[in-house]
Automatic annotation (TrEMBL):
The lineage of its organism: Bacteria, Pseudomonadati, Pseudomonadota, Alphaproteobacteria, Caulobacterales. CDD domains: MFS. It comes from the Bacteria. Coiled coil: none annotated. This is MFS transporter. Residues 221-411 form the Major facilitator superfamily (MFS) profile domain. The keyword Transmembrane helix applies. Keywords: Membrane, Transmembrane, Transmembrane helix. The chain crosses the membrane at residues 12-35, 55-80, 92-111, 117-139, 151-175, 181-199, 220-245, 265-285, 297-315, 327-347, 359-380, 386-407. It comes from Brevundimonas kwangchunensis. Pfam families: MFS_1.
Length: 411
């Protein structure tokens, strides 16, 4: 695969503190939009609508949602690269996606059958990726290489803050699905609005013409980065989608903590590990810039994530889940920050930033397709073999760390 460069060099002008702050808040809003929804609220809806086969319904919903997300992210990314609008090429799509996300929340909250829940999640994945695909391109569009690790460190706050928002969403004050979805929507709007109102995109640079539907020509570095993220995102997909059921069915959280609900336990567990996630991600991003080193940090992150998954497999009684989630969280925070900087540096073409990030985004959506299938197979006929599932995913995470060693252009 041959690298293609349509622009002469990358962005050179340093970005301001105000720009970093508004982009960071937008990222926080994006993660708030989907993390508590897919890890807490959709599993609770699946359990309410199909108590006899909640894992089966959740797997079906996750599978088809991921299929929609895969196509939407690439198509919208390609379209936003070519958009010429007075608001810029990214912001019109983010505006439209945000409106669609709010509509999807309403449909999910009011879902009275598995079919309506499936429709709501598919609509959410379509519109969320309409918002998220252009947003993720901004790092590569605007931030020079020497600032990418630093900015990615701030953007890395999105994942833990999105996870921590689950504590608010599951507070006793918001007991119903409608109330929880309303709070979620208000938080997302509040976080995205400053970026949408203040960001001013520079005019699109002139590029040489080529066939609009030409197949992308990608580099070997891009391929190794893709494989690495794909494997690590399989681990993330399993943890995001199935931890609620792991705590309920394997760890026996309700038996260990009478009077506490499993969803509130998971929310507290995530919140407790958030500090570690933030610290590891932030320091990792700064250190990767300081030492001009990305791959070593990603390899370390993969090892920590695998260690956490191994604890889930071998130590389900308390405080095992706390130890496992802490190890996993530190590794995940470090991985997301440094990986974002690495991927932004190996993109083949600045002309097609969002399209190429759409291809990279398959490493998020395809694992979400495979995770339900992997869970159904690894959990066995009775869907209770959690040690086997967590063990397989731990090995997958290690393979993801090793794959990044194939990248040559970035240290």
């Amino acid at each position: 695969m041959k690298a293609v460069q349509d622009f002469e060099g990358g962005p050179a002008t340093p970005v301001s503190a105000g720009f970093i702050a508004s982009l960071t808040l937008a990222y926080v809003g994006a993660f708030i939009a989907f993390v508590p929804l897919l890890s807490l609220l959709v599993p609770l809806q699946a359990q309410a609508l199909s108590p006899a086969d909640k894992v089966g319904l959740l797997s079906l919903v996750t599978l088809w949602g991921a299929v929609v997300a895969s196509g939407a992210n690439m198509v919208v990314g390609w379209a936003s690269d070519r958009t010429r609008h007075r608001l810029g090429r990214r912001r019109p799509w983010i505006f439209a996606g945000l409106a669609g996300v709010l509509l999807a929340y309403a449909l999910i909250a009011l879902a009275a059958s598995p079919v309506l829940l499936l429709a709501g999640v598919m609509l959410f994945q379509l519109t969320f990726n309409m918002m998220f695909a252009p947003l993720t391109a901004v790092l590569a569009d605007r931030v020079p290489d020497r600032q990418k690790g630093r900015v990615a460190a701030f953007l890395g706050l999105g994942a833990p803050m999105g996870a921590a928002s689950g504590v608010l969403i599951t507070a006793p004050l918001f007991a119903g699905a409608a109330e929880r979805m309303t709070v979620l929507g208000l938080l997302v709007v509040a976080c995205l609005t400053p970026f949408l109102l203040t960001c001013r995109e520079p005019p699109a640079a002139a590029v040489r013409e080529r066939r609009p539907w030409a197949l992308p020509r990608l580099s070997a570095d891009f391929g190794f980065a893709w494989i690495s993220r794909f494997c690590l995102q399989i681990a993330a997909s399993i943890v995001n989608a199935y931890m609620l059921f792991y705590l309920a069915d394997h760890a026996g959280y309700a038996d260990q903590f009478p009077g506490s609900t499993v969803e509130s336990g998971l929310a507290r567990l995530i919140a407790l590990s958030t500090v570690l996630v933030v610290v590891s991600g932030f320091l990792g991003g700064l250190a990767s810039d300081r030492f001009n080193q990305r791959k070593g940090f990603i390899l370390l992150a993969a090892g920590l994530m695998a260690a956490g998954l191994a604890v889930f497999a071998l130590w389900p009684t308390w405080p095992g889940p706390l130890v496992g989630y802490s190890l996993y969280g530190v590794g995940f925070g470090l991985y997301t920050t440094v990986d974002a900087a690495l991927v932004a540096q190996v993109l083949p073409s600045r002309r097609d930033t969002a399209r190429d990030l759409g291809i990279m985004n398959l490493t998020n959506t395809l694992p979400a397709v495979l995770a339900p299938l992997l869970a159904l197979v690894a959990l066995g006929p009775d869907r209770q073999d959690w040690p086997q599932l967590m063990g397989v995913v731990a090995v997958t995470a290690l393979l993801g760390g090793l794959a990044v060693l194939g990248v040559r252009r970035v240290r």
